[in-house]
Amino acid sequence: MDPNKRPETMERITTPELAEAFIDEQIAALRAQIGDKKVLLALSGGVDSSVVAALLIKAVGDQLVCVHVNHGLLRKGEPEQVIRVFREELGANLIYVDAVDRFLDKLAGVSDPEQKRKIIGKEFIDVFAEEAKKLENIEFLGQGTIYPDILESVGVKAHHNVGGLPEELNFELVEPVKLLYKDEVRVVGKALGLPDSMVYRQPFPGPGLGVRCVGAITRDRLEALREADAIVREEIGKLPETPWQYFCVIPDFQSTGIKYVDGQGQRYMGWAAIIRAVNTVDAVTATVPEIPFDVLCRMRDQIVKIPGINRCLWDISEKPVATIEFE
Ligand code: XMP
């Protein structure tokens, strides 16, 4: 039997009871596979790696070592949430690596999107490998591979692939959710007690805000983006039906703004923040949902107060002809 093929008889995990049964089964399988050895896991805070971490904590406790790399391109509050949930609430053995300067220094002046992705991917692997080398007796590598990753090894995700770990770190893989679809991973995450903000998190690209700080990333524009993005997530997140993905983008151009100082209008140059919200089933095509005008205005009013931003735009482009991300 091909271990990477989902058996036709496998029931879809749609209820807490089915999730519990899956969790019990996986705990037994993980214990049998890992024994008394150690497992390393790159924990991004995304749904898949978080569910794998929570499963491994249940199965092998502190034999799991999680590494959370902050590359400076995470959204507002994300590193703090990973630390709070995993270290403080679930008692995980978590190594937090602040690699912000290292990533942003490497990215300085780089405007080509593929080059940016390559730098982020390579730097991530380097940082992770460095941490792995500091540890002893690690024999396994946990991974949040899910079934669509196996099915889509070519296609939408192909250009995201940045390569793997160096050969000297030849760990055996531990992939407990590799036969599950995303909706099933969420049901399992919920049954494991992970917070809704993690379980129902919208997709977020590996290179993070890096592909939304369009062009060569600068720290000031990245900070403005992080703030604007938090406002968009907060306001659109309150809608009764949230779009599939919603975020903010700040391209590398400035336009004229005006501010009044002592009753005198002064012109100055500032960035334009672009609100993007899309609905899709498979990210291959996407439509643009209606956002109530008062919600757009509420976001605008907050976003234009962020230092450096003087304009707020709403992107109504569908995929095709535009892609979901800007680069
Ligand atoms: P596009 O922009 O190609 O995006 O329409 C389709 C979906 O893929 C996500 N995306 C990425 N995910 N690394 C990722 O892990 C990436 O480099 C990347 N680029 C795009 C995007 O957010 C959307 O959900």
Could you describe the 3D structure shown?
The chain contains ten helices and nine strands. With 327 residues, it is an alpha/beta fold. It folds into two domains: 184 residues, HUPs (Rossmann fold); 104 residues, GMP Synthetase, Chain A, domain 3. It has a five-stranded parallel beta sheet with strand order 3-2-1-4-5, sandwiched between helices. α2 packs across α7. About 2% of the residues have low confidence. Xanthosine-5'-monophosphate (XMP) binds next to loops.
Summarize the structure.
By secondary structure, the protein is an alpha/beta fold. The protein contains ten helices and nine strands.
Question: What order do the helices and strands come in, and which of them pair?
Answer:
Blueprint: H1 16-34, E1 38-42, H2 47-60, E2 64-70, H3 78-89, E3 93-98, H4 100-107, H5 113-134, E4 138-142, H6 147-151, E5 172-174, H7 182-191, H8 196-199, H9 219-237, E6 245-249, E7 254-261, E8 264-278, H10 293-303, E9 309-315
Parallel strand pairs: 1-2, 1-4, 2-3, 4-5, 8-9
Antiparallel strand pairs: 6-8, 7-8
Helix pairs in contact: 1-2, 1-7, 2-7, 4-5, 9-10
Xanthosine-5'-monophosphate binds next to loops.
Strand order of the largest sheet: 3-2-1-4-5
- Find the count of extended strands (DSSP E, 2+ residues): 9
**Quick one: biggest sheet?**
5 strands, parallel
CATH hierarchy class name of the largest domain = Alpha Beta
Relative strand content: 15-25%
Tally of helical segments: 10
Task: Say which CATH homologous superfamily of the largest domain is assigned.
Answer: HUPs
**Rg over C-alpha atoms, rounded to the nearest angstrom:** 21 Å
Which segments are poorly predicted (pLDDT under 50) over 5 or more consecutive residues?
155-162
Query: How far is the first residue's CA from the last residue's CA?
Result: 40 Å
